[in-house]
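Quick illustration, no need to memorize.
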Amino acid sequence: MYDYIIIGAGSAGCVLANRLSEDPSVKVLLLEAGPRDWHPFIHMPAGLAKLVGQKGVNWNYDTAPEPQLNHRMLWWPRGKVLGGSSSINAMCYIRGVAEDYDGWAAQGATGWDWASVLPYFRRSESNSRVLRHAQDEREFAALHGGDGPLSVSDLRYTNPLSHAFIQAGQQAGFAHNPDFNGPQQQGVGLYQVTQRDGARCSSAAAYLKPARSRTNLSVHTGALAQRIVLEDGRAVGVAYARDGKTMRARAEREVLLSGGTINSPQLLMLSGIGPAAELRGHGIDVAVDAPDVGQNLQDHLDICTLQHSTRRVSYDRVSDATIAFHYYLRGRRGPGSSNIAEAGGFVRSRHAADARADIQFHFVPAMLDDHGRRRLQGDGYTLHACFLHPRSRGRIRLTGTDPAGKARIEANYLSDAEGHDLKMMVECARLSRDIFAQRAFDPYRGAPIFPARSDLSDAELIEFIRAKAETVYHPIGTCRMGSDGASVVDPQLRVRGVDGLRVVDASVMPTLISGNTNAPTIMIAERAADLIRAA
C-alpha cells in the first residue's frame, strides 16, 4: 500500500516523486514504462543527435496522415526513460511570458496566472548567473532562482555559426537579448540550457536522483500502466505490466497521472474515463463520460530553412563528433557540451495579434533534415521557425484496448478555418530567409538546400511548408485544465468525476505558451505538489 502512485517518471513525475517523498511518513511509488537513464548520450548534451535512433528511450510516435501537410505522417519523438522528454530534448530553458499564464487564468485556470506561477519557476531553478551575480543583478535574481533542483546554465561552448546568426538577426532588425526569461522575451541570443557542469540536467538528474536513497520512495522501471483501478467513483490504484506479469498497487491517498500529452488521455480512456461513444466503440465500460479527454491537442509546427556552409565549422562531420566525444569526457567541455540548438530568438511579426512574440527561432549549426534522421553531405546550417500561438486543434484517440498499443494522434496542423496558421508559417519561412541573407552570413553562405531557391513566391513557400514542416516537440492540452464543466481537470488538476485522481503534466495546459514547454511542465508539477500536500 502506498500513499501516492505516480504514473510516468518524466519531467513532471520526477518532480512529484521528489517533493511528495520529502515527507518521510508518506510512501510513494513511481512507475515508468521505459528504462533507467543509463545511456551515455543522454548525459552528454550533444549526444541528443545520437539519441534519434535509440528506440529504447523513445516512444517513437507518428501522427495520423496530416491532411494539410500532403497527408504525411509526422514523427513525434517522446521520452520513454527516466526523465521522459527532458532526457532527450535540446535542453532550452524557456518559460514563456506573463501574458501566457494570465491568459490561462482568464480561460478558467484559476490560480495559474503569472504572479501565482513565478514563485514555482523560481523554486525549481538554480541559475548559474544568480549564483555568480546575485548581489549585482538584483533584477535577474527577482525573476530567477538560485538554489532549486534544476540547474540552468550558459552554454560552455558555442559554434561560430551561432554567433553569426545572432549578428544576422540584429542586422535584420531584431534586438539582442541575453535572457529570454528576463523582463523582455523578444530578441535574438543564446539559449540558457538545463545543464549542470556541462552535463544534461534532466528532471531525473535534478529531482529523482537526489531522492532515490529515500526508503519511502519506490521506483519501478519497465512498468507499463494498463489502467487506473476505480472503485465506487474513486481511483484506488494502478494495474501495470512488469517483467511479463500483471501487477497491482493500491494508493491510499491519490493516483497521479503524469504520462504526458499522448499517454495521459490514452490511459484515462483505457480506464473508462473519456468520450462515452468512443469508449463503448472499443468495448470499454464507461466510468465517466468525459468528452474532452484527448481533445484540445496543440503543437508548435516548425519549418526548417537549410543552407550550405562554405567553411567546415558546422557540427556535420562524423569524424569531428568522435573527437568531440573524447574531448568532452576529459572535462565536459567543447562541442560535446553543446545542446546543438545554441542560439535562437523570439520576434513579433507584422501579423501579431497582441504584444507577445509570435515566432520562435532555433538555430542549429548543422544540416538538420527530418529531425536529423536523414544525413546530408557537406557542411551547413539550419534555422527552425515556428508560429507560437496556433489556432488549429487536434485530438488523441484510441486505436484499441491494448495498453502497449499506440494511440492515434490527429494533430490537424494548419486546419484553422481562417487560414491564419498557414499565413504565419509562410511568415516564418520568409523571415528565416531574410535572416540568412544578412551580411553576417557572407563568410559562410553556400547554396540553399531547403528550399532549393531563395526567391520563392508565397505560393511556392506554401508548397514547401506542406512538404517539409515538422513538429518542434511541444504537444500539450489533451487533458485541459479549467473551471468549466467540460474541462478534463479543475484548477487543482483533479479529474472531474473521479475522486483521488489528478493529471500533472503538459496535457493540462489550456493553450500553448510562448516557447518550449519543458520548464512550464516542471513548474506545473512543483505547484501541483503543493496542491496535493494541502489536500
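The longest helix spans residues 420-436.
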